[in-house]
Write a structure and sequence with these properties.
With about 260 residues, the protein is of the alpha/beta class. It is built from ten helices and 15 strands. It has two domains: about 55 residues, Orthogonal Bundle (Arc Repressor Mutant, subunit A); about 180 residues, 3-Layer(aba) Sandwich (Rossmann fold). The strands form four sheets. A seven-stranded parallel sheet has the order 6-5-4-9-12-14-15, sandwiched between helices.
Amino acid sequence: MTPNPRQSQLLDEVRARGSVSVEALAEQFGVTLQTVRRDVQRLSEAGLLSRFHGGVRVPSSTTENIAYRQRQALQADGKSRIARAIAARVPEGCSLILNIGTTIEAVAHELLRHRGLRVITNNLNVAAILSDNPDCEVIVAGGVVRARDRGIVGEATVDFIRQFKVDIGLIGISGIEADGTLRDYDYREVKVARAIVEHSREVWLAADHSKFNRPAMVELARLDQVDMLFTDAPPPEPFPALLADAGVEVVTGDQ
């Protein structure tokens, strides 16, 4: 499903609070209990929320991400703003590694008019998008293709990435926890992302506001390994201090 504006706001509220009662949501959004229950029903059927008696909470799994098609629909406007902000900072004639994720794919669309880029990617969707740019050389990593999102992972992918040293490594992430760790779900994907961090002169992180305080199982990196964070809203507490201490430049996408 593609959440409507009210449902997107409801999702944001539940993510910010962890769990909330149906009555509180109805009061906050000025709608009836029946309207909130219908929204909650649709969102829970899509796997975006979990219901309990009298309320709703975020899904608690730290081991499995939500489905690719659902992630495409979530925070679509925020991802577009992040993508535009990143593209505005990418100089022509540079080298990049772009990894897996729907936000990274949005960035690829925004790079279609850039000239002289050399892009290495382990994302077949990114490769397909940027192949439409005649002034961009696209290099695709080898490895195992995940059918659900066309990401390429595995030891062969890690070995391939380690051949390069690029100007910018752009990574997406599933969650940023309050201790400053960047986390994801698939250990094979994380190993590739770690190689990208190690083989990039600058590391840029693309993360919409829903990624803050979102748990995931595998540690990828820490904030002090990131040079720039591109997001769509000011980070919540305690992240401003964590980002400042780590020396991360924060860029909030245009409103």
